[in-house]
Amino acid sequence: MPLSRPALLLRTGSRAVQDARAWVRAACREIDRTDLLECAEFGVSELVSNALFHGTAPVTIRMRGTVDHPRIEIRDASTEPPLLPVPLALDDEDEVLLTVGRGLSIVASVSDAWGADIDASGKTVWFTPASEIDEGDGVEGVITGPSGAPPKPERLGSETVEVSILGVPLALYRGFQHHFRELRREVRLLSLAHADDYPLAASLSALFGSLERQLLDGLGHGQLSGVIGSGPDHDRETADLHVRMPRSAADTVRRFLDMLDLIDEFCRQERLLVLARPPEQVTFQRWFLGEYLTQAAGGRPTRWSAAQMAGPRF
Fold this sequence. Notes:
Structural class: alpha+beta
Helix content: 40-55%
Keywords: ATP-binding, Kinase, Nucleotide-binding, Serine/threonine-protein kinase, Transferase
Number of helices: 9
Distance between the termini: 28 Å
Number of domains: 2
Low-confidence stretches: 86-102, 147-157
Protein name: ATP-binding protein
Shape: elongated
Strand content: 15-25%
Mean pLDDT: 79
Organism: Nocardioides luteus
GO molecular function, one term: protein serine/threonine kinase activity
Number of strands: 8
């Protein structure tokens, strides 16, 4: 089944590395990839040590990616990029465990791919463990981000439509934002690390970028900042949103809806180490994005409470 083991919050102190190693051993066994145990443990030892010594709490470890290419991620709250690796010879475990401060050479030598993804709230250093240690310099890492920066807005042009999204439940919208960011990051890392194995990931990553520029920029960084942030209305439960969008963005939205269903199916088929969307998010996302499609085609807005009773339209 898809990996459901929750991320591990690492305590500061001498046992953090041992806890992380035990966690990753269990995670590899859970997906029947015991062939990766040695490299996974070596990589985790280095990344957790670096995060504890050079990063900012909290520090967590989790596993994402696919069963064929599971990706181990160590996240901390520092936005400082990791040190680039230097050539390093691996002799035995004692040497590996004494290499704190020598960069990411170990990770490069025990990975099929690795890198760091930096956003506005911290960084995630990730690697896909190899089945055996590379005695050379290992693979080159890729640093991406900061993805948390607002995207450049689209030029709306003359063909636009005013869209009103009424009665948006802000708790579900926050969940949608989190889900969107997680999926965007997932397909981006798959396209960077294993493009040949997942050719669809690159096109999905481009679709995420297009949707964010066309639609979510104005919503995520404009009207909603007051009602879901720390302003005087931060405790509101619902909000009415009004945004002007390119009429052509309807095609992007329709493709995105199809993509969400496809990703859920990948999850159910155990092709991704993430869980499919819960039913309430499926209903909300279909309504929220469906409002763009309906109103771009000349229809009238449907308030969320009415949409719940009517059921999905797409």
